[in-house]
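Feature request, filed as a ticket because there's no other form

It would be nice if the structure record came with a short human-readable summary line next to the tokens. Right now we just get the raw output. Example of a typical job, pasted below so the devs can see what we mean:
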Amino acid sequence: MGDGLLCFCRAGFEPELAAELGERAALAGHPGHARTSRGSGLVEFFPADGDATGLDHALRFRDLVFARQKLLRLAELRELEGGDRVGPVLRVLDTLAAGGLPPFGQLWVEHADSDDGRPLAGLARSFGNALRPALRKAGRLTPRDEPAAPRLHVVLLGGRHLLLARSHPADSAPWPLGIPRLRMHPDAPSRSALKLEEALLVLLAPGDRERLLREGMQGADLGAAPGGWSWVLARHGLMVTAVDNGPMHEELLAAGRVRHVREDGFRWQPRQKLDWMVCDMVEQPRRVAARMAEWFANDWCRRAVFNLKLPMKKRWDETRLCLDLFTSQAGYPVRLRARQLYHDREEITVYASSVD
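Raw output as currently delivered:
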């Protein structure tokens, strides 16, 4: 059921997501074509064999780099009358239900995070308030929210144009638009702290965050100044060595959990194996990937989070090259997850682990 995938991304990165979906789909045996427009924040992908459900199962959300959210596209509604948007949605869902579509556990009415999409936020809220009780009355939505059941997504493309899609909680982002809403902590030395906070939220499972970030662990922050990422690790109970020739935030150092070493992050080596290494250095992505691989090849850390600053062109090609370079030079199997986060700009964030 469904005719393709619908994915959200950062506005301007539609070509990268389209290229990623095309390559991954072809490798999974479901070649097809992407449909998008620059700056839309959305990419649709249609398999040539028409097996959208098979494609949805083959392309797991956790493996996608440039997608903030992955949905199974169900239908497209155009030229809706302004006075009645609810009726057409119900009629389409009635047709789908006749084909075996069960009730949904939640309704999310969304819009793209783009210049054209953001003005639709007010309409999304009001339409959701009108549609939700109608869906429950028609039996298309469970009487109460059931977060473990598949969700119904209504994606507004305009006042009279929308897409219907579904997601499964185990294979999608748990936030509307795929964006976790984080607030800058007043004690954080820099806004870069939000990037690591989001990385730990998105790239690690909830149980892993509690198990793998514990009091007394040891970590290093390469290219640390002024200390945003060191501050995040310290908040999770780690003792941190901050490596940077630049100045660190004085209050962070005064708290006693962060030790500042004035040295180049590409040269410094730990004296013992660390639980964590993080790195947000502004450098060519291939050089960073090679340096991160060196850490794992030499068994200097168990886990790492690092950023790769991408070029302006062929960003999917560079991403794939850097991840392959890291994997080949690490010397042994390393688990990888990579994502362009909401707080990233021209970069992706990678989580690497040599252990469970």
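Something like this underneath would help us a lot:
The chain has two domains: 4-178, 192-353.
The mean pLDDT is 94.
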